[in-house]
Amino acid sequence: MNFIKNNLANAFTLGNLFSGSIGAIQLIYGNYQITAWCIVISLVLDFFDGFIARALKANSNLGVQLDSLADMVSFGFLPGLAMYKMLEPYGNLLYGIELPFEIKYLGLFITLFSCLRLAIFNLDEEQKYYFKGLNTPSNTIMIFGLYWIQPDIKLSEDVLTHVNISSVLLVLITFLSSWLLIAPIKMIAMKFKSMKLQDNYPKIALLTGSILILLLFKTIGIPLVIVYYIIISLVFQKQLN
Measured in whole angstroms, how far is the alpha carbon of residue 46 from the centre of its chain? Predict the structure, then answer.
């Protein structure tokens, strides 16, 4: 019985890793809908592994390490791969400039900085009720959401007619995403320090705004929700502690 209690959370973590691995494989083959479901499953399992560990008082150093290793695949390698896939059609051309390498490999900067962020998080004892920098699951939602909708996004006709997101914009998003992962910016975490209304204004604003964005923009709203999350976190910086 103690074995099950001590390892139930770890089983959820390994499930997260398993789902993330399948998602990455399916993304390579272009089955992005299966990848989307795998990300959802990983998100759910990632939430519940910590919840179960706290509920059963089964927190352990093993669990902490497993969680980061699983997240590295589901929310580190997978979003980097999604950006890799988005940049792949451009070959070695960046805004008409021929580079000595294919720009798709720049997408893996997201994977590198996700790894760095996870390592920093494990050593940082301040991030109990807030995140410092964009957390890897949110970053994954933003990048994969962009991958999901990018064939439908067109630039203004004044800029470039009937062309999908340009390589320059994708590269800029890659570097911005990488920086946000380790940025010294407080981000809202859905962890409740108290049940007082005034202590939870940031969370209420985040939930309310996110629901409205998804209702208004539907699929396109998926990456927009993360943009809103970043903005609302900046607005409530002083209240996050």
Answer: 12
Is-above-0.85 flag for pTM?
yes
Q: How far is CA 70 from CA 6, 21, 88, 110, 114, in A?
A: 18, 9, 26, 16, 12
What residues have CB less than 8 Å from 96, skipping those under 6 apart? none
Find the farthest-apart pair of alpha carbons in the chain and give their distance in angstroms, rounded: 66
Q: Any idea where the domains of the chain sit in the sequence?
A: 2-239
Q: What is the pLDDT of residue 18?
A: 97
Proportion of the chain above pLDDT 90, given as a percent? 58
Given the candidates 2.40.128, 3.30.530, 1.10.3470, 1.20.120, the CATH classification of the domain at 2-239 is 1.20.120
Q: State the sign of the Cα–Cα–Cα–Cα dihedral 131, 36, 92, 154.
A: negative
Q: What is the per-residue pLDDT for 191?
A: 73
The Cα–Cα gap between 160 and 60 comes to 54
Mean pLDDT of 30-41: 95
Torsion sign, CA atoms 163, 167, 172, 177: positive
3-state secondary structure at position 62 = helix
Q: Which residues partner with 28 through β-bridges?
A: none
Return the bridge partners of 98, or none.
Answer: 93
Q: Which residues, at least 6 apart from 91, have a Cβ–Cβ distance to it below 8 Å?
A: 102, 103
- Residue 9's pLDDT band (boundaries 50, 70, 90)? confident
